[in-house]
Structures are given as structure tokens and as C-alpha cells.
Sequence to fold (165 residues):
Amino acid sequence: MRHPTPDPIRPGQESVWDYPRPPRVESVRRTVTITLGGERIVTTDRALRVLETSHPPVYYLPIADFVPGALTPAEGSSFCEYKGQARYLDVHGGGQARAGAAWNYPDPSPGYEALVDTVAVYAQQMDRCTVGDETVVPQPGRFYGGWITSDVVGPFKGAPGSMGW
Fold:
């Protein structure tokens, strides 16, 4: 299946169709936060983002920046052809728990070593995730973990009809 026509880019925006494959890891220059159960469970200025063709960025935050007890091991794992074997984590905050709502790569594949000791979180399972002063919109679909901000345009993989992209 052919990928769709990229959305128009306005000044200050980037298209996910210009992102590379294999994915690229880069530093984020804005503060990133996550709130669950009314509790801020992480605030960091040390986030990374992974950019992959057709996907909004996936944000990886240092595990050490989460409040104590916010992340616990969960059942399950998955494999990424680029980053390697992922493990899942439960996320806790404000007396609430979200099973398997985060993942990380304890021993990532070569080229992705920067992801050691970081974790990505599904935004749709949190009360609020922010990049800078902006609340993110979760990537469509149930499997993907990208965070959409106003400076990123699609169309995004995960929307209905996008499985073959």
C-alpha cells in the first residue's frame, strides 16, 4: 500500500513523513511532564525522542526522574526490529495504577544505547502529558505510543486504514 500524501507544513512544523527509517534518537529541548491520578509523576529536562517515518515522536524519559514508586515491572514484552527487546512497566500515581502503560529497552540494539535507563509512556493512559507548555495528543491506535504536538504534522500511522503504511 502506498503511503498517503503528507499534510502541509507551516512555519515551525515538521512532517512525520520526513522522519527517517531506521528511527533516529535526539534530545528534547523542552520540559516534559506526566500527571497520573492528579499527581505529577515526572518532570524532566532530559527527555529524548525517537523519530520514525509516519509516526509522531515517542518520548523517552529518564527513569531516575520519576517519583519513587511510579514505575514497577509488568508482565509482557515485545520486540522492535530496530531498538530490540522491550519490557513493560506499570505506572502509578495519585493512588491509581495503569498496567503495562510504559516500556523501555534495558539492553537496546546498537545505535540505540541512549535509551538505556529511559522509559516511554502511553499518553492515552495518563491524565496529562506535556511537552513544553502544550498538552500532547496520543498517537491514534492502541499499539503505538507517539505523542502529537502542534509542531508535528501527519497523517499519522495508527489511524484507521494505516496498517499497511
